[in-house]
Every structure is written in C-alpha cells, then in structure tokens.
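Now for today's protein:

——
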Amino acid sequence: MLSPRESIRTLPSYHPPLAGRADGSLRLDFNENTVGCSPRVVERLRGITADDLARYPEREPVEREVANFLGLDPTELLLTNGVDEAIHLLCQTYLGPGDEALIVVPTYSMYRIYMMSAGADVISIPAADNFQFPAAGVRNRINPRTRLIAIANPNNPTGSLALADDLLAIAQAAPHAAILIDEAYFEFCGQTLLRRRSESPNLFIARTFSKAYGLAGLRIGALIGPPDQMPAVCRAASPYNVNAIALACLPEAIADQTYIHNYVAEIRDSCARLEHTLTSFGLKFWTSQANFVLFRVAQTAADAAAFTDRMRARGILVRDRSSDPGCAGCVRITLGPREHTDHLLRVLQETIADLSIAAHQPDNPSEQGASLP
C-alpha cells in the first residue's frame, strides 16, 4: 500500500491560531506590521495588469535590485517564498537521514519541522538562564554528523539577541555544516552578520519582507549565502518560486526607507512603553530586540490561555506561548504604532485587573527586563 515516508508520517503539524483574525481585531499575535506596507507598494499594486498576471514571473531582475540594496553580488542572493522556503531549501540541500541539525529552544517552530521532513535528527539545545543564547552549549554539541545549525537572531519568541562573535565562532567550529542566521527582525535591532559573511564560508543569512515591510501576505524573503554554495541551493528551488505580484512590489518597498525608518522608530517606542507598563505591574518579561515582547502572565498554561481569551474578547489578539520550552504561562505581544499601543495598554490593564493577575517578581532582580522611565 502507498505510504508516506517515515519522516513525513511522524512530522509534527503546525496549526497557527487563526481565530478572530478576520473580524477586525487588532492583530498583535503574529509579529506582523500592524498598519500595512508603504503607500508606494499599494500604488504599484494598482498598476498591475492582466498581462502581468498571465506571464511567468522573472525573479532575476528583482534579485539584482535587492542585491544592490543590500550591497551584495547577485550570485549571493536568492529570493524565496518567505523565509520559510529559505529554511526548507537549506534542509533539502544539506540534510538527509542520519544527519543532525541543531536548534536552540524556544525558537521558531518551522526549523524543527523542515529539518525532520528531510529525515534529520533534530538536537534541541535549551537556552541559557533568562533565555540568553547558549553559545558554548551549541559549540559543545557540534560533531561530524552536524550538517545544519539554525539560529534566529533576534530570537522568536524571546526577542533575545546573540552576539555576532559568538555566531561566527559557531560557524567556524562547524565548517562541515551550513549555519543559518535568520535575521527576520533585523530592522528592529540593527545587528547583522551581512558585512562579516566572508569570515565563514558556510554562513547563510535570511531576511524577510513580512515584518517591518508589511508584506507578509505576498510571501517574499531572501536567502544570502556563499557564491560557491548558492547554485546547489538554487537547484532545489522552483524557477518560479516567487509570484509576479511580490516581485513587482518589492522594489517599491525597499525604495521607501523613510517609511521603514519611521515605522521602526514607533515600534521601538511602543516596546519601551509596554515594558514600562509590565514593570509597573510587577510582571516578568524579557527585554526584546524585536517587534514583540514575551512576558509571563502567571505560572500555568491555563492562566495564559485565560488571558489570551480575555484579550481576544476585547478585540486584541495576542499569542499564548505556553507550549514552548521554558515558557509556561507566557504570552507574546506584537507591538504596533502609538495609537495601537494606546489601545493595547488600556485593554491590558483592564484584563490584568479582571483576572486578578498577581505580580510575579523574579528571585533575581537582574532577571527582570530593563526598568524604563
């Protein structure tokens, strides 16, 4: 009888919580841009014709524009159907049964799923205290079977940032493995390995246009890698993996850096405001370098679920992360611009009062996020 491969039959399913996403609620659950893309993108969309949609898309001209924007040679860059495809392509290119792939948990769940789909054994390395990046722990787990290491930087769902030198040391300690640094939230922190990519010939960097750029619905990302490795990755990709609408809009999105700068500045301000409010309630949170904040509502998953449900009833969607390692009772909230944050903070205070959430002070004050004015 026909049967899927073992690695597919045993693959965990990813079911994003979609309830309420179409009813006008404020979307603070998926780390999206909460106000949308640049007006230049919308104007370009209005100019797309029936003939544009009838032709197969040409990826290479837009890749040259993006490479020029990032200061790269086009041979180093592949546009992908979101960062998810970039992860999938690396797994298909470098992993097979018997290989090992390393991740630091908690982190983005699709790393594990794509690694497992390639038949690899996934080694999960717990984050260090206070969700700090365990650089020594990762290096200690590298062995001849290690073929891929995926690191989100900043990390999701914690917002923590690994040091560039630590990441390069890992890449240099595993020359036989592909090292993926997923910089999906680069715009909010400003740290990148892009300018140091030549220091390690096995280093890949992923970028997305779903977050700060507000193009999540168009599904477009970029994978940057060594010129001698990228042809193999490209062979695993469809020649038409990025749709024509996304390719038409991306040049307009990257051209409007004023929009990106202004949006990011508002998000950083909103992040500070949320962290200050959480501090005032005595709730434990982790200082974030991304466009979201992870905090602990209480000690149990049931409390986090009740908080999430109550916020949804008030028209704000937030993400319960209790199922992630080390995140029992934790909720992640995406930040939007000032007016969204005004609304969020009002509802947050009402919900905390309704549920009589007790202040949770960490035993070690240094574990609390930064106290902000």
User: Anything to note?
Assistant: The first strand starts at residue 26 and ends at 27. The chain has two domains: 6-30+258-367, 39-255. Residues 359-373 have pLDDT under 50 and may be disordered.
